[in-house]
Structure formats: structure tokens, C-alpha cells
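SAMPLE LOG
Freezer: B-3
Tube label: C17
Construct: single chain, 304 aa
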Amino acid sequence: MKAICPILTVPVTTFDVCQGESFPTLQATVTSAIAEVAWYNNAAGTGTPLATTTSFTPSGVVNSATTFYVRLRNVPVGCDSSLHAVTVSAKTCIDTVDLALSKHIDKKIAQVGDELTYTIKVWNESNKNATGVEVTDSLNVGVSYVSSTASRGSYNPTTKIWTIGNIAANGDTVTLQIKVKVLAEGIWFNTAEISKTNEKDKDSTPNNSKEDEDDLDRECFTVPFKLCTGQSVQVVVPAKYTNVVWSDGQTGNVVLFNKAGSYTFTASNGSCPSGGCCPVIVTEVDCCPPTICVPFTIKKVKKN
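STRUCTURE (predicted):
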């Protein structure tokens, strides 16, 4: 029997920390209890590990940029045990800034083929100039890129990075509009986040994917599912939502819809459509081919 290979995941690979502050806790996850997570301070991943745990807090304080390396040990032969780098950058916090980001989609309900406009705003709430600012907007597989217009800098659809540069103190604001074409049915989420600054941000960390920070915003739009008679669509709600109850009376995180309607849910720890969530919309269509469904009659004809 072929061995099942464990998978190592490192959710955050870059940290921004003020010089003189303690190191942050570095995280890694693994899909197997047999494999061991090992942290090193050398790119070869050799010698005695600094720690063998999924959560590792280096000792000491941050004085300069430091890179740690993590990999799996005790994995089956042929499985991946390559190193992953995690970098802690040292910021000069005398120049701490406070950047914020918001995102807007001009249509909440769209159809395949429609063009949508994503508008992203970034502004500086501090009295210090921010430099080297970048924003990542990853688009999603439900759309294709059409064009973009930035009030400052430019957006690269290949890297998904909006390179802004400087944002002045005391409310300076920049905007980016991205036009996309809708490709498929479903509920499509789009996330924009400040992914880089030269200075440390007062209340957020660039590129850490934390939704409770003001440098990230996520919005969605719905493309109705078109179902033929007898068909159904399966919808899966993330496991973090508990005691899910749908507007049609169904319960649970995995449900099937086979009738036209707009479906939302409530849960013990959240609800849809609040919090940026979009409803599931189902429409019924006539899927019967005209060559079969056009009424016709059959009459026997006597052969002469």
C-alpha cells in the first residue's frame, strides 16, 4: 500500500516587528500526527532543531531581519520534507504609520458575461508618511481580468499586486479600479489586503490574512445557479459556523437546493448575508432541447 504523505502548511511566512520587540509566534500545521515539525535557523535544515512543535516562539528580541526554516521530519520515503522559510523583518517604529483599506464591488448580483468593477481605497490615518506601499488583490477563478485604473501607481494582473509607493500623512487617499468579466455561476469572494510597507503599521500587519485588521477587506457577488428540473446544487458553509439554519428550514453546513429561491442562513456565531456574505440564488430554466420538446403528432399512413 502506498504511504499517505503528510502535508506541511505555513499560514504566515512574513512578519513585521519593531526593533527591540520580542519575536512573534511562528505557526505551522501538518496533516499527520506521525510527522514532526522541526524549526531551524539555517537554510540547510541541519543540526539540532530550535524546536519541534507547530507553534514556535524564538527567544530574544528582533534587532534585524531574521529568517527561520521549518520542515517535516519522520515522513515516509518519497514524501516531501523540503524547507519553508519564515522571515521576521525589523521595522523602525519611530516611523509607525496607520494605513486602512476598503473594497467595493459595483454589483452584488451578476450574470455570466457581465463586467464588474472592483474599487479599492487605501488611506493613511497617521501623521507619518507611508512608503513602499503595495496591495494584493488576487481576483478569483470566477472572473477574468479586463483592465485597471489607479490614481497612483499601477496594478499588475499577473502578480496581482498594486504598487502604490508613497501615501502621505493625514488622510492621503489612493484608489484602484479593476474591471473583470464574470465567468461562472456561484458565490465569488474577492479579497484585497495591504501586503507591504516600509514602516510598521500601528494596528495591522501586512500580508497576514487576518480579517479583523483594517488593512484587509473582503467582498462578494452572486451569480445565480440555473438548474434544470430535477437538478440540485450543493452548498457548503465553512465549519467555523455552527448550528447553521437556512431560510428554507434546512439545517447543517452542507445542504442541497433544488427549487428557485434566494437562500440565506443564521448560525450561533454569524449569519449570511451579513458580514460580507452573499445569498445563494437558484433559478429554474427550461433545459428541454427544442428538437424534442416542440409538440408534434404521429399519424399512420397507409402505403399504396
